[in-house]
Amino acid sequence: MTIQPQSLITIGVLLLALVTVESGGLFLKKVAQGDVPTNDLQKSFFRAGHAHAAVLIVLSVAILSVIDNAGLTGFWEFVARDGVPIAAILMPAGFFLSVIGRDPQRPNRFVALLWAGVVSLTAGLLVAGVGLLSAGIAAL
């Protein structure tokens, strides 16, 4: 199994991005200790943003490790290769940015980033899944 250079580069960037998720963990520790004033909405959105960032980055690495074997090209290759990594940026950004400010009572307009990430995640998973299934079946 050969991994294409663009996949290797993206995996490298994603692994380095996990360092930012790690620093986000330090921020969450400060929130939990009460060192950063937050309300319940902010606490829950910050936790969700942090968790989604980590899980989606790891999922992206897993998909990129095998997607080159799916034989996808053009638009479908882009969606399969980049859908989940894009979601790994958009969804956490939506969680964090939608509750910035002092004592927000509901998410602001940045919550749209969360929903854009949901679309990107769903498309990426569907296209990668179907592409890999098709490649596996064809290889039987």
TrEMBL record:
The keyword Transmembrane applies. It comes from the Bacteria. The chain crosses the membrane at residues 6-28, 49-67, 79-100, 112-139. Keywords: Membrane, Transmembrane, Transmembrane helix. This is Uncharacterized membrane protein (DUF441 family). It comes from Conyzicola nivalis. The lineage of its organism: Bacteria, Bacillati, Actinomycetota, Actinomycetes, Micrococcales.
